[in-house]
Structure formats: C-alpha cells, structure tokens
Amino acid sequence: MAQFTINPQRLDPYKNFKFRVKWDGKYVAGISKISPLIKTTQVVKHREGGDPGNLRKSPGQTDFAPIIIERGVTHDPEFEEWANKVFQFGAGDGTEVSLKDFRKDLIIELYNEAGQLAITYRVYRCWVSEFQALPELDASGNAVLIQYLKIENEGWARDTDIIEPEEYSDSKSGGKSKK
Predict the structure, then answer these.
(1) DSSP labels for 37-98?
(2) In the chain, how many H helices and how many E strands?
(3) What is the dihedral of CA 44, 49, 51, 54, to 10 degrees?
(4) Tens digit of pLDDT for each residue in 152-170?
(5) Name one Pfam family in it (predicted).
(6) Which of 3, 19, 71, 85 could form a disulfide with 102 if both were Cys (CB 3.0 to 4.6 A apart)?
(7) What is the pTM of this model?
(8) Where are the domains of the chain?
(9) Cβ 106 vs Cβ 125: under 8 Å
(10) What is the spatial distance between Cα 97 and Cα 1, in angstroms, rounded to a whole number?
C-alpha cells in the first residue's frame, strides 16, 4: 500500500518544522518546539494455573506522557495566564485555582512543505503542571530567552477528518501560487 494516497509517487515523510498549536480557538504565537506525543500501556503479566510454563501478557492501564511546549519570551501573556489558572499567587483562599477553565483542549496542526494542512492531533483535558517563565540568564551568553509549559493531558487522537492534501505543483498553476 502506498504511504500517500493522493500522491503515491511521494516517498518523503512530512517534516517536523511546520506546525501550529491552537487553544481556546486561537493560534498560539511563537511556538518553536513541542515534545513528542507518547502513550504507554502497562503490561500485566500473569500465568494460568493449568499452564504454568507460559507467561501471558495483557494490556493494563494506559498513560499519556506530559507534553512540553517551548517558545521565545515575548510580551504575549498566553503561557503565564494559563499557568496562573492552576495556581494564582496572592489570590485569596479558595480562589488560587480557576476550576472552571484551567483545562483546555489543544489542537496540533502539521503542515507539508507547501504549507498545506496535512495532519491534526487533538489533545484532551490539558492543564499546566510546570511553567518556566525565564531560563537561566547569562550576561556572557548569546541565546534566545525560552519559556515553556509542561502540559498534562488525558489523551490524544489524530483527527481523521483531515485528509491528505493534494500537493501543490508549480506546473499545474503555470507558475502562480495556488491559494
């Protein structure tokens, strides 16, 4: 079976550098890195009394690893505002956590080389367990300030409504870009 249905001649997999993240219906600015989406199912080992020589294995509980999202420090307060919904320093007793809206669903969109939406993942019931506002500062350094969120989640799934895009070809449009 071909790896790509629309363009079966394509051999190259999608690249990891064209992506966007959305929460609350808005794209989040400046994200430069996202950790892998990982799910792990525990193995339950057991033996049957009538068959003591063979060890059986069956699936147990499944856990979804936290996701780390990084971006350069800017004036956009989105990361900090979400982190503050889990714990707001200086808030009065009983108001430190915004129970109503500290969880969000995320959408991670992956694009092909031509900038066409190719794959989407939905990540469910996310909340911030760790927020780094500033990295280590170094007066003799030469680096971009990076902040990150460590996001706990209760599962993710590929959005199968997103189908493989018809790939852009300059020869189809006579040299004009296709929008």
Answers:
(1) P-EEEEEEEEEETTEEEEEEEEEEEEEE--EEEEEE--S--HHHHHHHHH--TTPPTT-SS-
(2) 2, 10
(3) 30
(4) 999 999 999 988 888 767 6
(5) Phage_T4_gp19
(6) 85
(7) 0.81
(8) 19-45+55-159
(9) no
(10) 50
